[in-house]
Amino acid sequence: MSIRTERVAGEIQKALAGPLQRIAEEISAGFITVTEVRMSADLQVARVYLSVFGGERSSGDVLEHIEKEEAGRLRHHIARSVRMRYVPQLRFHIDDSLDRAQRINAILDSVKPKDDGKA
Asked: Which residues neighbour 57 within 8 Å (Cβ) at sequence distance 6 or greater?
């Protein structure tokens, strides 16, 4: 990514943090965190990666709700908060990197030799 796309991605990430926390409270989703925003080279599309912790709803349910009910409002919020010529289309994805890291750690722990106390 160029410096410009990284800067725009960072501004969008900051702008989405507050509204997504409000949405999480409204739908009992626990915590929604924007882990990363990746911009297309022409700044027309923003891929927003979310992690969802706790709450009564699954990550898939939260993602579906945001895509169907909240995407337009979030885009409008970005239009008011971030000074840009064009407001990018928002594409939401669940960031499962933490789950993958935990699975890898569990696998590594299972193959690690056991310390039997002999020295």
From this structure: 27, 28, 29, 30, 65
Structural domain harbouring 100? 3-110
pTM strictly above 0.90: no
Return per-residue pLDDT of the chain as tens, 119 residues: 789 999 999 999 999 999 999 999 999 988 999 999 999 999 999 999 999 888 888 889 999 999 999 999 999 999 999 998 899 999 999 988 777 777 888 888 888 776 655 55
Element (H, E) at 39: strand 31-39
Q: Identify the CATH number of the domain in which residue 15 sits.
A: 3.30.300.20
Other beta carbons within 10 angstroms of residue 16's beta carbon come to 25
Calpha distance 32→27 (Å, rounded): 11
**How many domains does the structure of the chain reveal?**
1
